[in-house]
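quick q for whoever's on today - can somebody do inverse folding on this one?? i tried earlier but teh output was garbage lol. tokens:
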């Protein structure tokens, strides 16, 4: 039963969703890993799988040292399969429809509270005149304000910044372009960096089209930006498992916490599927209740 339903799902991804062979192969590989784990524990079909089994699987994978991105990707695959089987009438209900729980968010990435973000950003004071400190502050401000992927930030061209309309034009996965709003504070820091610091960094490479440069005038790479993030966390005294994607996750979480629509967040993050956005947004139940009371007419 596992294999029959899995093959139906893969056929759906190819024929109806039009996904590439690489993408469908990745989904198949992740789901076959999950199938094997279930089989070893006596499960015989998908209808026997509940939320606790999925959480136990993710927990086991984390204990094996799986990367956060791998865990998140596997959960996306399981959620998509469950939704498909429910829509096809093979499952009576989608057990992954509500997966937000304290246990799940201990497995998936840490995110920063708003107070932690403030401390994190202040690790590189905006008032300092040391050029690399100012550049690093601009990097962190843009990451948190826009939710960009690190690869997108590293290759962000000067032409992508629209100061008048407070927007960034970002080329993301699959060479797809999206328009992302950016906050006034981040723009103010970025404008100062571009005026006072970038010209110094660009002296050795004046034709570089990129916003953020190294001291040699070259574009920054992912590892260098990761190091900036780690230094900021250490200075701020934050002991969570911080990495550049933490700011992207915090960006989405805080938008949701303040009432933003999940579809809007999906667009800003550049997610092709809403289920991916559900993975990278988190809100505690008390905050959710407070937003309901504030915004719902009968709250």
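ok took a stab at it. sequence:
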């Amino acid at each position: 039963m596992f294999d029959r339903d899995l093959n139906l799902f893969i056929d759906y991804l190819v024929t109806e969703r039009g996904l590439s062979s690489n993408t469908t192969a990745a989904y198949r590989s992740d789901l076959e890993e999950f199938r094997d784990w279930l089989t070893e524990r006596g499960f015989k079909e998908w209808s026997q799988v509940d939320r606790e089994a999925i959480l136990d699987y993710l927990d086991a994978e984390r204990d094996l040292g799986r990367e956060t991105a791998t865990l998140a990707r596997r959960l996306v695959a399981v959620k998509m399969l469950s939704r498909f089987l429910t829509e096809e009438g093979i499952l009576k209900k989608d057990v992954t429809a509500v997966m937000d729980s304290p246990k799940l968010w201990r497995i998936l990435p840490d995110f920063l509270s708003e107070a932690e973000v403030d401390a994190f950003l202040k690790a590189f004071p905006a008032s300092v005149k040391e050029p690399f400190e100012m550049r690093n502050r601009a990097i962190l401000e843009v990451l948190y304000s826009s939710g960009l992927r690190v690869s997108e930030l590293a290759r962000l061209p000067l032409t992508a910044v629209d100061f008048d309309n407070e927007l960034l034009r970002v080329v993301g996965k699959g060479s797809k372009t999206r328009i992302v709003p950016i906050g006034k504070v981040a723009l103010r820091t970025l404008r100062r960096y571009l005026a006072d610091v970038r010209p110094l960094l660009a002296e050795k490479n004046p034709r570089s089209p990129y916003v953020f440069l190294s001291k040699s005038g070259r574009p920054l790479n992912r590892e260098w930006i990761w190091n900036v993030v780690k230094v900021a966390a250490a200075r701020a005294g934050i002991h969570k498992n911080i990495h550049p994607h933490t700011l992207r996750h915090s960006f989405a979480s805080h938008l949701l916490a303040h009432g933003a629509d999940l579809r809007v967040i999906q667009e800003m993050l550049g997610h092709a599927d809403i289920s991916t956005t559900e993975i990278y947004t988190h809100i505690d139940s008390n905050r959710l209740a407070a937003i309901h009371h504030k915004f719902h007419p009968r709250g």
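fwiw The CA atoms of residues 9 and 81 lie 7 Å apart. also The longest strand covers residues 167-171. so keep that in mind when u check it
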